[in-house]
Write a structure and sequence with these properties.
With 125 residues, this protein is α+β, with helices and mostly antiparallel strands. 26% of the residues lie in helices and 20% in strands. β1 and β2 form a beta hairpin.
Length: 125
């Protein structure tokens, strides 16, 4: 029964992610910290320039007071702003704006869940 509940929750999360995730294709837009989201250092994801986030810069994306909600896992930064389970920047006791690599490794989620989220940058410690 527990596996069924976990699987159902995961499916609901995946459905919410695919229905609401919108990639930012305008390289001239600004992020919550006032910096450029496009044209900064970083790699390419689907033809889109991505930014580098340090622990300090990632902390600004905590999902509170209208800020976007970003999380870092395995060196990538993901946008969870429109994921219902991350409402107000929190999910199961975890907060957005931090590196959740260790927490993700111990969670019931798999890499396929991360594949449904928009990668907005890379995480550098």
């Amino acid at each position: 029964m527990k596996k069924y509940v976990v699987l159902l929750s995961l499916l609901m999360l995946l459905g919410a992610c695919t229905a609401t995730a919108k990639p930012n294709t305008d390289p001239g837009t600004t992020d919550q910290t006032g910096g450029q989201t496009g044209g900064q250092t970083g790699g390419q994801t689907g033809g889109q320039t991505v930014s580098e986030y340090s622990t300090k810069t990632l902390a600004a994306f905590n999902g509170k007071n209208g800020a976007k909600a970003y999380i870092a896992v395995d060196g990538k930064v993901y946008d969870v702003t429109n994921v219902a389970q991350w409402k107000n920047g929190g999910h199961k006791g975890y907060t957005a704006g931090v590196d959740l690599t260790a927490a993700f490794a111990n969670s019931p989620h798999t890499a396929s869940l991360l594949a449904t989220l928009e990668v907005v940058g890379t995480f550098v410690k």
